[in-house]
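Worked example

This section walks through a single chain of length 494. The input is the sequence exactly as stored; nothing has been trimmed or padded.
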Amino acid sequence: MTELTRLTIAEARDALRKGETTSLEITEACLGAIEGAGALNAFVHNTPEIARDQAKAADERQQGRDEALAMNGIPLGIKDLFCTKGVPSQAASRILEGFKPEYESTVTQQLFDAGSVMLGKLNMDEFAMGSSNETSVYGDVVNPWKVDGRALTPGGSSGGSASAVAADLCLAATGTDTGGSIRQPAAFVGITGLKPTYGRVSRWGVVAFASSLDQAGPMCKSVRDCAIMLGAMAGHDPKDSTSADLAVPDFEAALTGDIRGKKIGIPKEYRMEGMPPEIEALWADGAAMLRDAGAEIVDISLPHTKYALPAYYVIAPAEASSNLARYDGVKYGHRAQMAQGDGITEMYEKTRAEGFGAEVQRRVMIGTYVLSAGFYDAYYNRARRVRALIKKDFEDVFAQGVDAILTPATPSAAFGLGEMADADPVQMYLNDVFTVTVNLAGLPGISVPAGLDKQGLPLGLQLIGRPWEEGDLLNTAYSLESAAGFVEKPAKWW
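Given that input, the structure is written out below as tokens.
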């Protein structure tokens, strides 16, 4: 059998059902791998006792041949943005230092109800604000892929999730995606990451960044694993007012690989100036793979794409400034030391100055600015109107019979940690150029590893689907995955 930590969810599920291994054996193998991977800085709060207890319970269920639980005995990593009862949940921020929720997020509860095992909490960009996992209070996450000895970013904000899955520290992980934070890191480390339709997965108990954009999803080793894990994560939740009251289909059953007659759109606006030839070639190869599988490839136009990044970086910081106002040093988390004569205003100011990192402060200030009385219409309302136009672009394309849209996942392969530290922040924001439109329109999107660049680093392709049709999107991704045949893994150096 494959080394236990290298198993996919589907392989582990089958091995467990055949009695070839136990959840406790897989869990112990993962815990050992985590212990030996401190150099990656992916796991930040380990929960071995919880993991062993959950694994033992899963094995007892398995002996009773209770095969109804989709994720029974599968060890996962949980992004630090998800509240986990009695376990530190800091959103990688100093301001939430010491916070241990008294409740479980809906997503983690559903995963546990489906039999999953929690190995620990994963590193991330602070409050999910970042594209390189360099804004975390825990320090940088390191990509398991290396070139010329350089430490590379795993992407962000779900960098810990991406690094942990790619390095086989866990079988899969939860991520969240506000502007590409599942798909971009998945592409940087050579795994598969799915952002579901907005409302498909509950946001309750997930620390908020931008409430109209945030969506949780699976980060896995294969498309099939994403289908299995999404089935466990998804569903209506009355505690989340934006949760869709829709039945959850059997996403795995949709994976036939047959895409004959499907219409795949190639948006001309995604051919950006200065796009590396390798990305362009990979995109063309992906289109050829889907054509060979029987799909019809058509050119499409999404005319408002060029306004997506500016609109996103008005709307997301505006919502962040509102959501992060609750961190004031009064109710929970970090509180600054007070000087004699300080009042509540000084406490708020000092606490936030100490508790929030530079990138979070930057976005909160931008958000407060665009929501202020003199600029609300000029910036925020205008960005909302642009968002509506971007959404309509997709609606018009889907109305023409397009089933999915193929684009690059990222404008480059993973770059070195620290390489953009002194650059204009906009240079970092450009990492989201292919992904933010999907969040603005509330659509499902998936990143599939499809090749290597000339340095030997993974590159991903993105497929964008119709709203609520994750099954169809996953099937198209399954066909692309099969044709690409990406099986490369990072050489172990950590």
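What to look for: The mean pLDDT is 95.
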